[in-house]
């Protein structure tokens, strides 16, 4: 049902530590009435920070230094970020964890995990920069200029001009040497295409920061402009050319290949580090095994649906029939609105979750560009649902695949993922509950919440026909496939092309859409576990639902509301909190949650 406001529940009172003084009892009765004494007011105003305040402070500290030291290849930047992290670990170690109320204990665990993860990421970034430093011998003097600016040191115009001119000469010399000794260099120091592109991206960042450095004094300081303008203009052009050189000559990348799939696998050890940070007590190989079991369940259900459609065991033919059931150009927004109304009514009739009236009122629609659809071939959501459908400038085949991939039954299976009760409702609640936890946002809850509903709606007989079932099964198989292909890619077991083939052959994607899915996964700015997080997070919340609702006496509505009020944090910690577990500063990562396939 839709209600004007969320239910009121018993509030959990978070107590704070106060400095006390006998002066607190004294009052000043002059003026308009009784007031606390000076010492009492000071004690109250200058008391210890709460955990939500510490979370905000760390986020602000990190942001301040990130904005100040946003250039690559800097030992000083790395050292300063390391110092920040170690200081914060010391600060957290000094907190009396056992004296904290339970919500603050959760925040402490989240904050410590965040700081530790930031330090690990810093080490990884430092190692990756060291891997390509031999490609940028010109960089250290340029970085020194940026470090000096961060210290608010004004440059010597002539010295700065000399540094820029020397960098241009170094760039030219390096490229000449590479071209002359290309075979020998590549034999002795192989540079992968992904490393070359990563280095080119760092050089681009360096160039932008130098542009900001130059713009600060140029034209405001006549002497600076007189000395620096010409060498900077030369170097800026040289750096742009060098970025292309790194990709084409060093990395062997064809810049005209728009369908290129190029990722940067991180390996098993790095995946294990990420899993520990996300509080997942499984190895990549174990997650792949879980996904294969889920996939096998989907295969069996697809055969049943194909039989119900009179197509025997040919699930591919059945899925093709479903894919043809799409609306025409310009009609998709109306379908999205219709499907949203349908799921909201379904949830309300069964009292599964209370939906604030404003949440249902405030979501909006947007249209996805043709360029973005190369990375995201299906609609995405939140407060704005971005609709993927053919645009006028698309080629004929791309238009057909866009409509087929966003057909009525596939869309019916995912509108609720993107809007209500999925991402839009989730974001609506996150903006209103435990907002300080936004910095701990994890895909295992963000995507896991929407996947949990896909799993629950199957149990609740949301699909009304075999076609609807195939729509839901397409996505469920795809979520399992995401675990399999993304982890195999990062383990170095599969190439990007093998990932595409897997999606086409085993899930039933059109090849254009499969390529877009893989491109999104490996080079779209997502973390290495993001694609695995959909199904894994959904399984976690599904298992927690069975514990608390199936066995623990919670109602459906209370469980779903309580999960949303924790914001987008690790499901493992939501579980410990909602079960009433005693929390420790060394809270173990040991939840072995069961799969869903039945």
Give the helices and strands, then pairings.
Blueprint: E1 2-3, E2 27-28, E3 35-36, H1 38-45, H2 51-68, H3 75-93, H4 102-132, H5 139-150, H6 157-180, H7 182-188, H8 193-217, H9 222-250, H10 267-277, H11 284-308, H12 315-323, H13 332-349, E4 355-356, H14 357-362, E5 364-367, E6 384-387, H15 396-405, H16 408-412, H17 415-418, H18 423-430, H19 443-459, H20 466-490, H21 496-507, H22 511-523, H23 530-551, H24 556-565, H25 571-578
Parallel strand pairs: 1-4, 5-6
Antiparallel strand pairs: 2-3
Helix pairs in contact: 2-3, 2-4, 3-4, 5-6, 5-8, 6-9, 8-9, 11-12, 11-20, 19-23, 20-21, 20-23, 21-22, 23-25
Number of strands: 6
Q: Could you say which overall geometry the principal axes of the C-alpha atoms support?
A: globular
Instruction: Give the proportion of residues in helices.
Output: 55-70%
- State the helix count: 25
Quick one: biggest sheet? 2 strands, parallel
Mean pLDDT: 90
| Low-pLDDT regions | 1-29
């Amino acid at each position: 049902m839709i209600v004007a406001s969320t239910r009121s529940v018993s509030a959990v009172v978070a107590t704070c530590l106060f400095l006390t003084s006998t002066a607190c009892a004294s009052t000043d009765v002059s003026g308009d009435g009784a007031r606390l004494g000076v010492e009492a007011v000071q004690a109250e105003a200058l008391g210890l920070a709460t955990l939500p305040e510490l979370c905000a402070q760390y986020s602000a500290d990190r942001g301040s230094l990130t904005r100040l030291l946003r250039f690559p290849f800097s030992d000083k930047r790395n050292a300063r970020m390391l110092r920040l992290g170690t200081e914060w670990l010391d600060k957290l170690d000094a907190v009396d964890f056992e004296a904290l109320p339970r919500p603050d204990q959760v925040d402490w665990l989240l904050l410590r995990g965040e700081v530790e993860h930031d330090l690990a990421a810093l080490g990884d970034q430092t190692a990756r920069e060291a891997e390509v430093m031999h490609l940028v011998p010109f960089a250290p003097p340029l970085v020194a200029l940026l470090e000096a600016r961060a210290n608010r040191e004004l440059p010597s115009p002539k010295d700065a001009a000399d540094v820029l001119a020397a960098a241009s000469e170094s760039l030219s010399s390096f490229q000449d040497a590479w071209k002359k000794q290309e075979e020998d260099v590549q034999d002795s120091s192989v540079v992968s295409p992904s490393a070359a592109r990563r280095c080119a991206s760092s050089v681009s960042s360096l160039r932008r920061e130098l542009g900001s450095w130059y713009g600060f004094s140029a034209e405001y300081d006549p002497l600076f402009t007189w000395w620096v303008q010409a060498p900077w203009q030369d170097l800026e052009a040289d750096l742009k050319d060098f970025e292309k050189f790194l990709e084409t000559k060093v990395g062997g990348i064809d810049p005209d290949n728009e369908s290129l799939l190029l990722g940067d696998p991180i390996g098993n050890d790095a995946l294990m580090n990420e899993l520990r940070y996300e509080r997942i007590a499984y190895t990549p190989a174990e997650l792949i095994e879980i996904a294969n079991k889920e996939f096998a369940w989907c295969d069996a259900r697809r055969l049943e649906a194909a039989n119900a459609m009179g197509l025997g065991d040919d699930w591919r033919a059945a899925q093709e029939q479903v894919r043809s059931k799409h609306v025409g150009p310009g009609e998709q927004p109306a379908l999205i609105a219709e499907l949203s109304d349908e799921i909201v009514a379904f949830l309300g009739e069964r009292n599964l979750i209370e939906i604030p009236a404003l949440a249902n009122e405030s979501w909006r629609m947007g249209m996805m560009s043709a360029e973005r659809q190369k990375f995201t071939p299906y609609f995405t959501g939140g407060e704005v649902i971005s609709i993927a459908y053919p645009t006028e400038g698309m080629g004929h085949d791309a238009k057909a695949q866009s409509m087929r991939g966003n057909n009525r039954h596939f869309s019916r299976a995912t509108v609720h993922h993107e809007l209500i009760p999925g991402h839009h409702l989730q974001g609506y609640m996150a903006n209103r509950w435990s907002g300080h936890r936004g910095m701990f946002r994890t895909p295992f809850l963000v995507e896991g919440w929407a996947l949990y509903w896909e799993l629950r709606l199957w149990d609740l007989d949301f699909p009304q026909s075999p076609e609807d079932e195939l729509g839901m099964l397409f996505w469920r198989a795809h979520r399992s496939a995401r675990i399999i292909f993304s982890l195999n890619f990062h383990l170095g077991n599969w190439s990007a092309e093998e990932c595409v083939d897997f999606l086409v052959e085993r899930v039933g994607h059109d090849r254009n859409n499969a390529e877009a899915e893989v491109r999104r996964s490996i080079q779209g700015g997502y973390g290495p576990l993001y694609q695995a997080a959909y199904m894994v997070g959904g399984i976690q919340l599904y298992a927690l639902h069975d514990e608390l609702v199936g066995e623990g006496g919670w109602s459906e509505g209370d469980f779903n509301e309580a999960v949303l009020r924790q914001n987008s944090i690790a499901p493992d910690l939501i579980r410990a909190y909602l079960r009433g577990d005693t929390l420790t500063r060394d809270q173990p990562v040991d939840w072995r949650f069961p799969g869903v396939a039945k």
